[in-house]
RNA sequence: GUGGCCAUAGCUCAAUGGUAGAGCCCCAGAUUGUGGUUCUGGCUGUUGCGGGUUCGAGUCCCGUUGGCCACCCCA
């Protein structure tokens, strides 16, 4: 039996790797004053249709539940966020700085960097419409990646601005209903031949191409870069107006993060969505907001591609999973004493393991080694003394059992 | 959703149309209480699944399921 297509088993090593990513995400978010929240995995299908239209249903894991409700596994967190914020916004001081690590689902054919399920860090800043809020989010995205040991040689944030393009469309008297379509053409222009894009853009083609070739100036984005520079982060970002992002609801600064080598899908992306909360709450609450998301799949690939980041995370995995002590019961008569001390050690927060069925001493040492224990405690003929052995140095110390706990502190901390 | 490549032991892979193998992992031992090395032995297969061609199919053909890659789409 294999997992369903696009779903993953997390064997202990994979799970440790995943949790180490979560640990780093949480550390950095908290440094920025973001607090964690979460919502339901299952939502009414309608919640997603409201935001993205009926065609979204084709990409959802959705079904009818036993109460005959149309429900869907969450494909993203933002609609839930909007619902929760609309219901509870008065309980919190503004701005809200919230993050979450939801598992999201999508019914799509899988390929590299895109499964049917992934974990996605979401960071949102709600109730602040200033440019400083956009900068704060971009800086957070940069520091999240720096937290994994990546440098400006490994990734880059490409900054753009939706209003830059919507003003152009307005200046050319393009009717509103064509905006989404034209923005998507601009978004795609990097991957599509010019002639094809020109055909779709019509009269706009010339001015759009001029901007894409570097002829555009956005004062707002230059301010963003300047403020990043004040934080010493300007090396990690560049203005790139070809970034538009496919989603219709963005209203201001948008950005995407890519690996410098250009081998992977976008590592993260987001932007300002000032109208979405109002729209999803049927106008009962209106709050400006901006946010971004970073998935665990592409990030994991980048970590595996960059040796320094991989080693750093592997070290974190070691720290989080390493066993402190392994008990060696060399004489079965000493088992009761060993188990009594086992409990004392565990009560004192040591991570301790031992062989449940009797086993040969050599075997027990082998297991201690394999589990990564720092030291063994041997119970045998020496009782009432216990022999501490540091596995890395093979150094041994005999200590009376009643002094074991304090002696372990000093032996293992040095 | 469209197209191309692929599918053999738990893992990585061999096997001209002629009896399915190796390495790794795992388990057990190498004279009674000391680990990373070494040696010996053991375990594992409806060759993804279903049909067809053939005296004979892991190998050729068709279908199907799954995987990889590109396109489409994109949270």
What does this entry look like structurally?
There is one protein chain. This protein has 15 helices and 17 strands. The chain is of the alpha+beta class and 414 residues long. The strands form 3 sheets. Strands 1, 5, 6, 7, 8, 9, 10, 11 and 12 form a 9-stranded mixed beta sheet that branches. The protein has a 5-stranded mixed beta sheet with strand order 14-13-15-16-17, with helices on both faces. Strands 2-4-3 form a 3-stranded antiparallel beta sheet. Helix 1 (12-31) crosses helix 12 and helix 4 packs across helix 9. It is elongated. The model has no long low-confidence stretch (mean pLDDT 89). The structure holds one RNA strand of 75 nucleotides.
Gap from first CA to last CA: 48 Å
- How many helical stretches? 15
Helix content: 40-55%
Please compute the radius of gyration using only Cα atoms: 27 Å
What structural category arises from helix and sheet content? alpha+beta
Strand percent estimate: 15-25%
Write down the overall geometry.
Answer: elongated
User: Average pLDDT across residues?
Assistant: 89
Uncertain ranges: none
Biggest beta-sheet profile: 9 strands, mixed
How many β-strand stretches? 17
Keyword list:
single chain; 414 residues; alpha+beta; 9-stranded mixed beta sheet; 5-stranded mixed beta sheet; 15 helices; 41% helix; elongated; RNA-binding
């Amino acid at each position: 039996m294999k997992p369903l297509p696009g779903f993953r088993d997390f064997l202990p090593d994979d799970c440790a790797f995943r949790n180490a990513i979560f640990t780093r995400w949480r550390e950095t978010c908290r440094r920025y004053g973001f607090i964690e929240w979460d919502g339901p995995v299952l939502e009414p299908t309608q919640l997603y249709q409201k935001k993205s239209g009926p065609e979204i249903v084709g990409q959802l894991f959705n079904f009818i539940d036993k109460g005959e409700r149309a429900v869907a596994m969450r494909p993203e967190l933002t609609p839930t966020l909007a619902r929760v914020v609309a219901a509870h916004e008065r309980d919190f001081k503004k701005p809200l700085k919230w993050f979450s690590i939801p598992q999201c689902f999508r019914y799509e054919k899988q390929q590299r960097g895109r499964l049917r399920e992934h974990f996605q860090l979401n960071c949102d800043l709600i109730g602040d419409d200033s440019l400083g809020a956009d900068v704060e989010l971009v800086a957070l995205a940069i520091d999240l990646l720096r937290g994994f040991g990546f440098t400006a040689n490994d990734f880059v944030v490409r900054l753009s601005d939706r209003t830059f393009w919507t003003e152009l469309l307005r200046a050319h008297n393009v009717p509103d209903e064509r905006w989404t379509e034209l923005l998507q053409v601009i978004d795609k222009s990097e991957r599509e031949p010019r002639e094809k894009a020109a055909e779709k853009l019509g009269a706009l083609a010339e001015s759009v191409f001029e901007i894409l070739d570097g002829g555009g100036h956005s004062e707002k984005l230059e301010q963003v870069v300047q403020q990043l520079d004040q934080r010493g982060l300007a090396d990690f970002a560049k203005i790139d107006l070809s970034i538009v992002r496919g989603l219709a609801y963005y209203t201001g600064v948008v950005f995407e993060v890519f690996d410098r080598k250009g081998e992977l899908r976008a590592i993260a992306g987001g932007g300002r969505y000032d109208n979405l909360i109002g729209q999803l709450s049927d106008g009962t609450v209106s709050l400006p907001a901006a946010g971004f998301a970073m998935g665990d799949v592409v990030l994991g690939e980048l970590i595996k591609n960059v040796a320094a980041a991989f080693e750093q995370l592997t070290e974190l995995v070691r720290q989080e999973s390493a066993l402190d002590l392994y008990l060696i019961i060399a004489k079965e008569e000493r088992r009761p004493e060993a188990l009594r001390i086992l409990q004392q050690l565990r009560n004192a927060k040591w991570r301790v393991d031992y062989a449940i069925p009797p086993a040969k001493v050599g075997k027990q040492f082998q297991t201690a080694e394999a589990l990564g224990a720092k030291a063994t405690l041997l119970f045998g003929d020496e009782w009432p003394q216990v022999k501490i052995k540091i596995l890395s140095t093979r150094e041994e110390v005999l200590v009376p059992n009643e002094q074991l706990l304090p002696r372990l502190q000093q032996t293992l901390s040095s």
